[in-house]
Design brief:
The chain contains seven helices and 15 strands. It is an alpha+beta fold.
């Protein structure tokens, strides 16, 4: 049992409220996932720069890392956020990511892109929301997860969201039964993985499809025929997100939509604080039906 949440704003004037709304949604899902939590925030203010979200396991390397990264990439800027860093640079991921992985084994790249920032940690979701000061974040949409570990260890690299492509992420409530075979197939196609978590495999499958110029809707349709198990997904891109429940649909989800926003959560209690939510259209996503907002 895990908790998933997401909110997408239809009006730009609401972007400054993202952190406040999303933090309360995650807080209210603490009962579904006490082991770890994480969130992805999308903000398109700096479209030219790539942003790399990094989890630091060893604080003693911070100064050396900042010195090395600014020497290698002259325009680099490093912003500490608790025990994470957000590295901003014009340099391409094909250069930056191999450099970090080769030289800094204690640094986990949890996401990258021109609009996404990802933060995740082990512990109670309420504490993690406070640790990263989520309420002060702004953006167009955000996705979050509270985890009750079943498929892999309680570690940062076992926590959600998972990002395996530029400006892409996935949160998942459920369990996949064929993830080991699918992981082997994706590795043969060039994908790499940082954990043994089944959700990272699903994220890899999605990013692999998107890299072949498939739309998010087409990609999630392929999930229905290639992923075995029980799942409710929220998949994010830089323009919006999508929701999918498998065709058996035993994992709960509820959507609230009005003229200002679309909110998704495992339980309605996660959205009870949202303004005018009782006047919104509230419904459960149908089994095997893909719901998208944005692109």
């Amino acid at each position: 049992m895990c908790g998933i949440v997401g909110i997408y704003f239809k009006k730009k004037k609401l972007h400054r409220q993202l952190g406040q709304y999303l933090s309360q949604m995650l807080d209210n899902m603490s009962s579904r996932g006490p082991d770890s939590a994480g969130f992805a925030v999308y903000n398109n203010n700096e479209k030219k720069l790539f942003k790399y979200s990094l989890s630091i396991n060893d604080n003693s390397i911070l100064n050396k890392f900042e010195t090395d990264i600014k020497k290698k990439f002259k325009d680099a800027n490093v912003k500490p956020v608790s025990n994470h860093l957000v590295l901003s640079t014009l340099s391409n991921p094909k250069i930056v990511i191999p450099f970090i992985k080769k030289n800094y084994h204690n640094i986990l790249i949890v996401g990258y892109g021109k609009s996404i920032e990802i933060f995740k940690e082990v512990g109670n979701p309420r504490d993690i929301v406070k640790k990263f000061n989520l309420k002060n974040f702004t953006g167009s949409h955000g996705i979050g997860h509270t985890r009750m570990a079943t498929e892999s260890a309680i570690t940062i690299d076992g926590s959600h969201p998972y990002s395996t492509g530029e400006d892409e992420c996935l949160v998942h409530n459920g369990s996949l039964s064929n993830h080991n075979n699918l992981r082997r197939q994706l590795i043969k196609q060039g994908k790499t993985f940082d954990s043994f978590n089944d959700t990272e495999v699903a994220a890899g499958f999605i990013s692999n499809n998107l890299s072949k110029n498939k739309t998010l809707k087409q990609t999630l349709k392929n999930c229905l025929s290639n992923l075995d198990g029980f799942y409710t997904f929220i998949a994010g891109t830089n323009n919006g997100f999508a929701v999918l429940r498998d065709e058996i649909a035993c994992k709960p989800a509820v959507i609230a939509e009005n003229k200002d926003y679309v909110a998704v959560a495992s339980e309605f209690q996660a959205m009870a604080h949202l303004p005018n939510v009782n006047k919104a259209k509230i419904y459960e996503p149908e089994p095997g039906v893909i719901y998208t907002w944005g692109k």
